[in-house]
């Protein structure tokens, strides 16, 4: 890294794939970054549904799902890493009567900006009883970048970045999420050239 560039922190931002990014996992993807530091980055793709519904996922782990609003929701392909493992992006759930800001679930990463990402089964158990976080997005797998990797992809114009808007994750129909994320930058897909260029 050159001395004139301060490290950037894109935690709680969207990465929006440029048209020239043809990698099968990431083409036309919107990635929500859960963590970004000098050690690397970790995120979940929020607009690539799999053919698995939450009901069938819960059946697979021997849990019933008593949340009618979630049964037909898709499980998303969160990225190419650990695709057999579940990741639950959700609104913060704090411990009852806790003085601390401790999450109600084990194995939870608190994301500055207002979300949590949990990898332990207890969040699924809470959802199965009809409790748990109201708004969730569940993925199999995640996306990760090693030290300096994301920065070099940004320098190659592979991604656009914008501060995350939770309504894109939880309130926008899946097929519209890419265009909606672009609109946060005042852009439309047709404005982007598939050839990555440098000004």
From TrEMBL:
Family: Belongs to the UPF0301 (AlgH) family.
Gene3D superfamilies assigned to the protein according to its UniProt record, in alphabetical order: VC0467-like
InterPro entries cross-referenced by the UniProt entry: AlgH-like
GO CC terms of this entry: cytosol
Record-given protein name: UPF0301 protein CBY09_20590
SUPFAM superfamilies xrefs: VC0467-like (SSF143456)
């Amino acid at each position: 890294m050159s001395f004139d560039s301060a490290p950037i922190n894109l935690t709680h931002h969207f990465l929006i794939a440029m048209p020239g990014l043809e990698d099968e996992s990431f083409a036309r993807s919107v990635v929500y970054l859960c963590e970004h530091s000098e050690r690397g980055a970790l995120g979940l793709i929020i607009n690539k549904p799999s053919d698995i519904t939450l009901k069938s996922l819960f059946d697979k782990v021997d849990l019933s799902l008593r949340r009618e609003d979630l049964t037909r929701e898709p499980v998303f392909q969160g990225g190419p890493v650990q695709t057999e493992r579940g990741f639950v992006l959700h609104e913060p759930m704090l411990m009852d009567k806790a003085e601390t800001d401790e999450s109600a679930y084990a194995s939870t990463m608190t994301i500055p900006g207002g979300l949590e990402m949990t990898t332990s089964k207890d969040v699924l158990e809470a959802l199965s009883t009809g409790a748990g976080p109201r708004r969730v997005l569940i993925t199999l797998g995640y996306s990760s970048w090693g030290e300096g990797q994301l920065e070099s992809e940004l320098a190659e114009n592979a991604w656009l970045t914008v501060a995350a808007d939770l309504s894109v994750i939880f309130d926008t129909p899946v097929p519209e999420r890419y265009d909606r994320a672009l609109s946060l930058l005042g852009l439309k897909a047709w404005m982007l050239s598939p050839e990555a260029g440098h000004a």
